[in-house]
Amino acid sequence: MTRFALPAPIPASARGASVALGNFDGVHVGHRAVLEVARAACAGSNPLAAAVFEPNPRRFFHPEAAPFRLQSPAQRARTLEALGAAHVFEICFDPSLAQMSDRDFAEKVLVNQIGAAHVSVGADFRFGRSRMGDTESLAGLGREFGFGVTAVAPVGAEGERYSSSAVRAALAAGEVAKAAAILGRPWAVEGAVQRGFARGRDFGFRTANLALGDYLRPRFGIYAVRVSLDGAVHDGVASLGINPTLGALAEPVLEAHLFYFDRDLYGQTIEVHFMAFLRDEAKFDDVEALKAQMARDTEHARAALAMT
Predict the structure, then answer these.
(1) Which of 113, 153, 246, 302 is the 20 to 30 Å CA partner of 285?
(2) What is the CATH number of the domain that holds 149?
């Protein structure tokens, strides 16, 4: 899989793709349906590609908005690759793109830059300046410029439409199983392990600490997790929050304790998969009470992971 940052030129070998187009934040089950339609449209005769916006238009238009991303660009690209995308086109969402008409976007980006043979989008897709374009106008532009267009109906279960917003709502409520059902896999945070205060080591609970950065802030609390590291997966328990007992932090931190693991991970990249919510973050009267609860959390996490 190759990632291309547009508007930089792409090689001729990457042109002529059947393209799934959208933000694809989280690459949930609904996004997969759009990708599957693009796959069917290419019928093996064209490359399968995904075209995404970077940064997310929401961040461009609302730079003050609280962190909301479900995946980093690298996670998104890997997920799309696992689903069969040969290329990922990351379209730079900047002032120039924001001012393009729907027609200009179709001609300058989809035709001139990507050379799309077919474009599949969600049924509610909007594009162009002030969201002027929709699936109907995209289909008309496709007929004019020579690319096919398919609008994909929403996907959901029990009357609920799968969406990135639904994933965010589930995570904000600590409903990680519901979020995983929409995503088609457990939600995960990836990052480089940072140096903390090393207080967990004094308690016998060494942790790998990650800053959340642009990731959504889910419900603060304790989670059963699985941690991907160097191709291996380790069971563990994690705290996500501001650590009120040991001195509240200005920004929430994800602190993951890997079972039966006692190696320094500073600077290494890990991915923490949220498997089950165990309890809310709490402030304890003293360190001894915190240590006792951490031991109970470990046992609860092991029990939860044994069922997944």
Answers:
(1) 302
(2) 3.40.50.620
308 residues of the chain, pLDDT tens digit each:
899 999 999 999 999 999 999 999 999 999 999 999 999 998 878 999 999 999 999 999 999 999 999 999 999 999 999 999 999 999 999 999 999 999 999 999 999 999 999 999 999 999 999 999 999 999 999 999 999 999 999 988 877 889 999 999 999 999 999 999 999 999 999 999 998 655 656 667 889 999 999 999 999 999 999 999 999 999 999 999 998 877 667 789 999 999 999 888 999 999 999 999 999 999 888 889 989 999 999 999 999 999 98
Inside any domain, residue 172: no
pTM: 0.94
5 part of a folded domain = no
d(CA 180, CA 271): 15
C-alpha distances (whole Å) from 239 to each of 152, 214, 253, 263, 279 are 39, 18, 8, 19, 10
Does residue 217 lie in a domain region?
A: yes
Q: Residue 4 falls within a domain, yes or no?
A: no
Q: State the total domains in the chain.
A: 2
| 275 and 238 both lie in a single domain | yes
